Amino acid sequence: MDEESEVIKKKNSGCLIQLLILLLLIIVLFIGGKILYKRLNEKVVDKQSNDGYTIELVAIDNIKWPFGNCKGRLVLKNKDNKVICRQKIEVNNDGTTIDKSNWKVEWKTDRVVVTIKGYDDSEEKIYTLFFSE
Question: Which of 33, 103, 93, 107 is nearest to 73 (CA)?
Answer without folding.
Answer: 103
